[in-house]
């Protein structure tokens, strides 16, 4: 059995696998990732092969603290220091200028590197135990749904992992906020649980939303995070529709999610996964509120619908 409970022994096993250049299933508070040593080009290449991910789509490097990343990044602007202090460990990734220690394979040849300090106790324990920075893309096939629990990792991915450490369902359920900190302004490349408003309030800077900047994050393809079943927005679910709504379900093909973005995000991918397993003709999703607090949910739903 590759899925291990998070005992000290399992954490040591995972850390050793990373040191040996193997891949592991890394739990985090956002989604499960495929961990590899960020200092090992061959291990990073294996990650891309396993996910069938295009090589130009860069990875996030996970570390235990901003200090632990000091030899990976060549400069840290004041705003980035403030963000790190406020939101790390947590569901936030910052893009910063990289040093030559970061292999080109990790960054798709870019001169920048994405860094995150996760808050999952198991992820942190593995990072500390291995003593390595760890690249970890979400543990799904390219363009698929990110797994938010260990047993939702696809068999094709699982076959390439030395182990998965099971930390239960992920707390946030959608990927981290990615912020480009390399310019004079901050830009959100991917919205997440750390919202634009939180970043603006903390830094006093104007933060551009993701949409206008699509080309700058190579991973921001229009269709992404998608189930196999076609999915589209509706005003309200009808009695025979399969999908996600805000009201009492009318059949077993309907799922009611909370009318509040954190609770909705936490269950979004696992609900889409369940609906996908039901092999209906289409998945309908009631449009969430048109409010900035729902930006990350809108982003993932728009990518799932390809709109
Ligand atoms: O929550 C998360 O961030 C999860 C967990 C496992 O930590 N990881 C994750 O990784 O979502 P991935 O590879 O699925 O998404 C990484 C995103 C992509 O959109 C990628 O383009 C962007 O981060 N990214 C990475 N490095 C970048 C860079 N140097 N410049 C711009 N965007 C970058
Ligand atoms: Mg991903």
General description of the model:
The protein folds into 2 domains: 3-209, DHBP synthase; 231-305, no CATH class. 28% of the residues lie in helices and 17% in strands. The mean pLDDT is 94. With 307 residues, the chain is α/β, with parallel strands linked by helices. The longest helix is centred in the last third of the chain and has 17 residues, at 261-277. The strands form 3 sheets. It has a 9-stranded mixed beta sheet, with helices on both faces. It has helices at residues 8-19, 41-51, 78-87, 104-107, 121-130, 155-158, 196-203, 261-277, 295-305, and strands at 3-4, 24-26, 33-37, 60-62, 92-97, 112-116, 134-135, 164-165, 177-180, 186-190, 207-208, 231-234, 243-245, 254-256, 283-286. Magnesium ion (MG) is lined by residues 137-138, 146, 175.
Oligomer: single chain
Q: Output the structural class.
A: alpha/beta
Main β-sheet description: 9 strands, mixed
Please name the fourth-level CATH homologous superfamily of the largest domain. Answer: DHBP synthase
Q: What is the average of the pLDDT values? A: 94
Strand content: 15-25%
Bound small molecules, by name, code or SMILES, are: threonylcarbamoyladenylate, magnesium ion
Q: What is the name of the CATH architecture of the largest domain? A: Alpha-Beta Complex
- N- to C-terminal separation? 40 Å
| Counted beta strands | 15
CATH T-level fold name of the largest domain: DHBP synthase
- Helicity range: 25-40%
Output the radius of gyration.
Answer: 19 Å
**Count of domains:** 2
Question: What is the general shape?
Answer: globular
Question: Ranges with pLDDT <50 over ≥5 residues?
Answer: none
């Amino acid at each position: 059995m590759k899925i291990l409970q998070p005992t000290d022994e399992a954490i040591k096993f995972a850390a050793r696998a990373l040191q040996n250049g193997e891949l592991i299933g890394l739990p985090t508070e956002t989604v499960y990732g495929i961990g590899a040593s960020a200092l090992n080009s061959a291990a990073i290449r294996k990650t891309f092969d396993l996910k069938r991910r295009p090589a130009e789509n860069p990875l996030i490097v996970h570390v235990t603290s901003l200090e632990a990343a000091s030899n990976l990044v060549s400069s840290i602007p004041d705003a980035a220091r403030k963000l790190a202090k406020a939101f790390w460990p947590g569901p936030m990734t910052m893009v910063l200028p990289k040093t030559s220690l970061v292999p080109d394979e990790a960054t798709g040849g870019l001169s920048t590197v994405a860094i995150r300090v996760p808050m999952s106790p198991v992820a942190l324990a593995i990072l500390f135990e291995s003593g390595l920075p760890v690249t970890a893309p979400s543990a799904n096939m390219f363009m698929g749904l990110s797994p938010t629990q260990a047993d939702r990792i696809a068999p094709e991915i699982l076959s390439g992992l030395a182990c998965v450490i099971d930390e239960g369902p992920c707390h946030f359920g959608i990927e981290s906020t990615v912020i480009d900190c390399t310019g004079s302004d901050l830009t959100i490349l991917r919205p997440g649980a750390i919202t634009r408003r939180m970043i603006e309030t903390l830094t006093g800077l104007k933060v551009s939303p993701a949409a206008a900047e699509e080309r700058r994050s190579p991973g921001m393809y229009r269709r992404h995070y998608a189930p196999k079943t076609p999915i589209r927005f509706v005003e309200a679910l009808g009695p025979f529709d399969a999908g996600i709504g805000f009201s009492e379900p009318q059949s077993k093909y309907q799922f009611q999610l909370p009318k509040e973005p954190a609770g909705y995000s936490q269950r979004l991918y696992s609900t889409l996964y369940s609906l996908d397993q039901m092999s209906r003709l289409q998945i309908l999703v009631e449009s969430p509120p048109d409010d900035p607090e729902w930006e990350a949910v809108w982003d993932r739903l728009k990518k799932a619908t390809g709109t």
